[in-house]
């Protein structure tokens, strides 16, 4: 805990008048650039060490500044307000100039800020793991010590160091080590294509101690462990976009993921409780932990340097005492807090009491002081069994806990040493010395009893101010630490097993032989990333969850791919929790968590996404704390500490500097019945890692700075410069869209939509067929979608240009007429002009790749039975004639030609099998026509039998034109199904001859309340007429400047009706419709949900044994199952007999024998005949 002296606090920034909360800010450089309010800056543009001052005596009315201060600064603030308005007005409007610039086809020289921001927290956490975390993990890994029975030596296995190399091809492989320019680097693109894992070698320094003497020290290879792409151990680190393209990567390569078996795996960002900060909580489950336990407690999540976390809870008991909970090897221990305090310090009882009541006001310290005196007296008890000294407390703890922890600690420890080791590892382990642990327990005691006496309010772990982020590097190092410790345990088991079986004496040679066995650290790390499940049974592993830790970075669209890097999951535990509190969006989440970018359904509110200006701090830089300590040394001489109520300044290192007095505490207002205090008073400096912070503009300095969620609650932040309240507003938002995620910022006018529609659009944008990658033809992904005829939207937000989303278009500008023209456009259906479709509207392609391994086809692995398959290779039979279908489809090497059209039963590839001495031809079994896009040879090709080609990857592309049943959606969350491809001659047309591409039913607008789509119809039309892009950034229009009036004026200037309506002609009669038709341009998205991927028709096949309905799954041969919706559809057509046949006769119907007299069911047993209960006495 850091205590700030009064003069130091004043020197940071003036206190102002009495009752004014001091504002301690960290200034940053400010550039009055025209894009500075909307363009994110790097870490160098703003410092992340923030100070939050919390005073229990300050209420909302005290947050302003004095009248005199207002008058003195009124003119200055008005000038700052005008300056902010000018800067806001200078922001560039959306345009399409980027499409026509040279930059559109040329990779930039440096990585774009948007791309760098997405992968920065993931990459920095992994780099920190390599630089510091791995070393700290090794140092904190306890040695494995054991005694060989019955009279063998005592052996200790110690880890001293670990190092991670770079991905390289091992010596001895083809092309490695054969020359001066032999290639050894392994690139991520090669692993994607070959279906391998991007790994680097891991080496550990192991020390063997036998009977207290060092017997050997060696460096052991532990296999290859996965490496994060674009980290400091990746060969892509530091490459420019142009260099990335040359090595086969995307120019906008984000990094931050792992490549496992050819798939891109990303470790999820998980929500964790703020580290090293005491939280006063109420949890009903705590009351069931033991006798007299209450629901009140103070929780501290203690995080060490290697990012290991341990929970310590100080419980309040109903008799007024307290117990400390700490865990060792997942077993919880509850110790009286008096014993804990006595075991941590050698101070006298009076000194302990003074430390506990220090800083408490005289009016409220008497009950607390009495309770502490009772606690200290209870320690002594009788003269024989009492705890009188620190040594007595340690002996008692060691004696009582030894039976439960002895097996995991050194057998040579006495009671005192065992207790000290246990307290060091399990009680507030982020603090290295007992003195610092003592101070933290004292603070926890003060906060606990303040909560129990209603002097402090209950805090909330569901609020963002109590959150931090568990990053990929943190989870990775914890799993790696567990696997390395498991390696030591496996060596112990090997040695003991050999001794039990009488395999010779257990000496140095025997231990080294066990060490030399191949450790499976690399295999376990690869399994962890492939499955997302942490190793089971490990006592060293403490994670928020043990499953679902990694996900596939799906590349369905660019929006979906980038959203993975901003996703923040609350934890799998809360999925099954019935309470909705964990899913609610609290007010302090403003600017940190996007309010609309969360899925609907089960993960709603649990899978969130960070706001666009929110950053995750990954630095270990407590420089600000060192400056405060140096300042204390310069000003402490001659100073006197005050004993009034202090706001303690708490940091992760927990160092005391001084006190800040509460100068305006009025105890008379606190003595009213039922009063509950505010937040626990203190000055808290957070300099740890993984904090959530966001950018705002400080009005006093007109500079960008980072603020945390806890500090934000005590600031007055205006959403725009126009909303600044002189004398009260301290900060202003960087932009009006700072509360939204990157994807949500692309929605046109989301403030004009119903909020669920914005949520739907955030999900549908990630399901859109677009341009997921630029090198899509070289991507070996299992399934990729591409829109062949994309357009740049005419109605777009400023973020669209800022992040250059024209590089990844994902929609088509379509002429839409809002008209109820036929019964085919009811509900969510829509009609597409057949001529528009035939001319390329929403045409797309599906890219698939397949890995073909001949050893797998032969039913064996690469290492089993290879001698029986010498000569196995891809080849075409040489005896076939030139007109043979195999010869026309395949090359001499047995592989298909690039550009070959594949129909069902077309020759796909051919290979020679030495088993039977024959050539085998495999046919293409898919029903859809495909085209061979690319063929990769992954093994062999160097000549000779051992270098024969046995492993290839074949990529094909499939054309997908819109058909009836395909799904489309607008950017306002208005999704619909193509119900009919309407002939052109039957499509209504305008007076100008313009024919719509899509007919949309007007009944779909009022029920969804998507006013933004109606505005987009007008705006898209106006933009096309004037040849420019229009601004769709949210919060730009309001009641004084309505969007529809602005768009209507543009239409009027172009000679059209200002309401967006036109006179349309009936294609049947040639006469105009009686009513005008609302028509314009809308940016439509084609979703990946297509009929050709889902339809299934069959007359016979397998069925579910219980329900007697067709089984589920198209790949398993399943059929259409009749549910409630299908039942209603068939009944509406009057086919009652069909439903009876399907749902009763052939599904639920069952025949049983019943006694006509008593109604008893009669059972027929094979070999016995009819049998039933004794009451059966009649006919059946």
TrEMBL record:
Coiled-coil intervals, chain numbering: none
Domain DNA-directed RNA polymerase subunit 2 hybrid-binding: 744-1116
UniProt domain RNA polymerase Rpb2: residue ranges: 275-464, 552-615, 1118-1164
Leading EC class: transferase
Keyword annotations of the record: DNA-directed RNA polymerase, Nucleotidyltransferase, Nucleus, Transcription, Transferase
UniProt catalytic activity: RNA(n) + a ribonucleoside 5'-triphosphate = RNA(n+1) + diphosphate
Cellular component GO terms held in the UniProt record: DNA-directed RNA polymerase complex; nucleus
Main location: nucleus
Pfam families associated with the record: RNA_pol_Rpb2_1 (PF04563), RNA_pol_Rpb2_2 (PF04561), RNA_pol_Rpb2_3 (PF04565), RNA_pol_Rpb2_6 (PF00562), RNA_pol_Rpb2_7 (PF04560)
Keyword Transcription regulation: no
EC number: 2.7.7.6
GO function terms (MF aspect): DNA binding; DNA-directed RNA polymerase activity; ribonucleoside binding
Source domain of life: Eukaryota
Annotated localization: Nucleus
Biological process according to GO: DNA-templated transcription
Residues annotated as domain RNA polymerase beta subunit protrusion: 118-500
Subunit structure: Component of the RNA polymerase I (Pol I) complex consisting of at least 13 subunits.
Family: Belongs to the RNA polymerase beta chain family.
Role of this protein: DNA-dependent RNA polymerase catalyzes the transcription of DNA into RNA using the four ribonucleoside triphosphates as substrates.
Name of this chain's protein: DNA-directed RNA polymerase subunit beta
């Amino acid at each position: 805990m850091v205590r700030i002296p009064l003069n130091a606090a004043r020197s940071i920034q003036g206190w102002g008048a009495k009752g004014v909360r001091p504002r301690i800010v960290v200034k940053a450089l400010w550039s009055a650039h025209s894009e500075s309010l909307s363009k994110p800056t790097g870490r160098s543009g703003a410092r992340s060490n923030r100070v939050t001052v919390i005073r229990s005596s300050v209420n909302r009315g005290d947050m302003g500044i004095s009248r005199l201060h207002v008058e003195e600064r009124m003119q200055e603030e008005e000038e700052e307000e005008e300056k902010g308005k000018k800067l806001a007005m200078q922001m560039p409007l959306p345009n399409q100039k980027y499409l026509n610039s040279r930059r559109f086809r040329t990779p930039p020289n440096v990585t774009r800020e948007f791309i760098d921001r997405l992968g920065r927290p993931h990459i920095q956490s992994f780099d920190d793991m390599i630089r510091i975390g791995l070393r700290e993990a090794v140092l904190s890994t306890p040695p494995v010590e054991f005694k060989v029975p019955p009279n063998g030596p005592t052996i200790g296995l110690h880890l001293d160091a670990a190092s991670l190399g770079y991905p390289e091809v091992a010596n001895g492989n083809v092309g490695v080590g054969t020359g001066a320019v032999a290639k050894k680097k392994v690139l991520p693109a090669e692993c994607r294509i070959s279906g391998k894992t991007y790994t680097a070698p891991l080496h550990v320094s192991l020390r063997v101690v036998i009977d207290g003497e060092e017997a050997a020290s060696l460096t052991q290879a532990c296999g290859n462990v996965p490496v994060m792409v674009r980290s400091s151990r990746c060969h892509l680190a530091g490459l420019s976009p142009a260099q990335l393209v040359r090595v086969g990567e995307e120019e906008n390569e984000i990094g931050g993921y792992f490549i496992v078996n050819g798939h891109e795996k990303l470790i999820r960002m998980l929500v964790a409780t703020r580290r090293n900060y005491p939280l006063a909580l109420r949890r009903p489950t705590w009351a069931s932990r033991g006798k007299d336990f209450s629901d009140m407690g103070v929780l501290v999540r203690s995080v060490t340097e290697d990012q290991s976390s341990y929970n310590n809870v100080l419980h309040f008991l109903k008799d007024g005492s307290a117990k400390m909970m700490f865990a060792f090897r997942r077993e919880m221990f509850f110790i009286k807090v008096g014993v804990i305090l006595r075991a941590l310090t050698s101070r006298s009882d009076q000194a302990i009491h003074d430390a506990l009541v220090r800083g408490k006001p005289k009016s409220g310290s008497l009950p607390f002081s009495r309770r502490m005196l009772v606690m200290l007296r209870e320690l002594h008890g009788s003269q024989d069994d009492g705890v009188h000294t620190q040594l007595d407390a340690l002996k008692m703890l060691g004696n009582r806990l030894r039976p439960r922890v002895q097996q995991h600690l050194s057998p040579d420890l006495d009671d005192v040493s065992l207790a000290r080791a246990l307290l060091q590892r399990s009680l507030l382990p982020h603090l290295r010395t007992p003195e610092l642990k003592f101070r933290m327990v004292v603070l926890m005691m003060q906060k606990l009893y303040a909560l129990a006496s209603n002097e402090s309010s209950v805090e909330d772990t569901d609020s963002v101010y109590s959150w931090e982020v568990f990053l990929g590097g943190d989870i990775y190092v914890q799993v790696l630490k567990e696997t390395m410790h498991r390696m030591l345990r496996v060596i112990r088991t090997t040695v003991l097993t050999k001794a039990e079986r009488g395999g010779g004496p257990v000496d140095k040679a025997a231990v080294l032989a066990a060490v030399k066995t191949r450790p499976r650290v690399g295999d376990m790390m690869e399994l962890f990333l492939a499955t997302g499940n942490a190793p089971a049974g490990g006592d060293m592993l403490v994670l928020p969850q043990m499953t679902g830790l990694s996900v596939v970075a799906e590349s369905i669209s660019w929006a979906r791919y980038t959203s993975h890097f901003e996703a923040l999951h609350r934890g799998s535990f809360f999925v099954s929790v019935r309470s909705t509190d964990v899913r609610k969006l609290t007010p302090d989440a403003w600017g940190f968590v996007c309010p609309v970018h969360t899925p609907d359904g089960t993960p709603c509110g649990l899978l969130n996404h960070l706001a666009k200006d929110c950053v995750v701090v990954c630095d270990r830089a407590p420089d600000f704390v060192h400056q405060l300590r140096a300042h204390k040394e310069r000003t402490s001489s001659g100073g006197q500490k005050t004993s009034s109520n202090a706001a303690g300044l708490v940091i992760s290192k927990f160092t005391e500097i001084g006190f800040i007095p509460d100068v305006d505490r009025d105890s008379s207002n606190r003595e009213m019945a039922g009063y509950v205090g505010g937040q626990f008073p203190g000055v808290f400096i957070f300099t740890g890692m993984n904090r959530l912070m966001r950018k705002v503009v400080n009005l006093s300095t007109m500079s960008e700075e980072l603020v945390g969620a806890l500090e934000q609650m005590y600031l007055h932040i205006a959403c725009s410069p126009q909303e600044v309240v002189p004398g009260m507003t301290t900060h202003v938002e960087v932009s009006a869209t700072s509360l939204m995620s990157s994807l949500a910022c692309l929605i046109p006018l989301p403030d004009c939509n119903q909020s669920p529609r914005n949520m739907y659009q955030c999900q549908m944008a990630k399901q859109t067929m677009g341009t997921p990658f630029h090198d899509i033809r070289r991507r070996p992904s299992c399934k990729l979608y591409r829109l062949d005829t994309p357009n740049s939207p005419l109605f777009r937000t400023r973020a669209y240009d800022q992040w250059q989303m024209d590089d990844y278009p994902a929609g088509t500008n379509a002429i839409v007429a809002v008209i109820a023209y036929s019964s085919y456009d009811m509900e969510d259906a829509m009609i597409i002009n057949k001529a528009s479709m035939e001319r390329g509207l929403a045409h797309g392609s599906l890219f698939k790749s397949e890995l073909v391994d001949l050893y797998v086809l032969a039913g064996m692995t690469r290492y089993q039975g290879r001698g029986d398959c010498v000569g196995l290779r891809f080849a075409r039979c040489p005896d076939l004639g030139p007109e043979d279908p195999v010869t026309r489809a395949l090359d001499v090497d047995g592989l298909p030609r690039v550009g070959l059209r594949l129909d069902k039963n077309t020759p796909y590839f051919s290979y020679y099998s030495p088993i039977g001495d024959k050539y085998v031809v495999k046919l293409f079994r898919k029903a859809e026509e495909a085209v061979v896009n690319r063929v990769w040879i992954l093994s062999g090709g160097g000549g000779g039998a051992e270098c024969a080609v046995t492993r290839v990857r074949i990529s094909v592309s499939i054309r997908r034109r819109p058909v009836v049943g395909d799904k489309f959606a607008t950017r306002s969350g208005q999704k619909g199904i193509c119900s009919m491809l309407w002939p052109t001659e039957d499509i209504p047309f305008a007076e100008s001859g313009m024919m719509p591409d899509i007919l949309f039913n007007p009944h779909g607008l009022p029920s969804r309340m998507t006013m933004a789509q109606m505005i987009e119809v007008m705006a898209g039309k106006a933009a096309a007429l004037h040849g420019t892009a229009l601004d769709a950034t949210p919060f730009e229009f309001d009641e004084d400047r309505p969007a529809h009036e602005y768009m209507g004026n543009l239409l009027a200037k172009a000679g059209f009706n200002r309401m967006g309506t036109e006179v349309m002609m009936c294609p049947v009669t040639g006469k105009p419709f009686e009513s005008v038709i609302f028509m314009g341009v809308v940016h439509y998205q084609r979703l990946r949900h297509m009929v050709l991927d889902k339809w299934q028709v069959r007359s016979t096949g397998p069925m579910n044994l219980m329900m007697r309905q067709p089984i589920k799954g198209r790949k398993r041969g399943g059929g259409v199952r009749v549910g409630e919706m299908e039942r209603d559809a068939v009944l509406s057509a009057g086919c009652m007999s069909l439903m009876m046949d399907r749902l009763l006769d052939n599904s639920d119907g069952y025949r049983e024998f019943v006694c006509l007299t008593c109604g008893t069911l009669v059972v027929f047993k094979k070999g016995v005949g009819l049998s039933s209960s004794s009451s059966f006495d009649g006919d059946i």
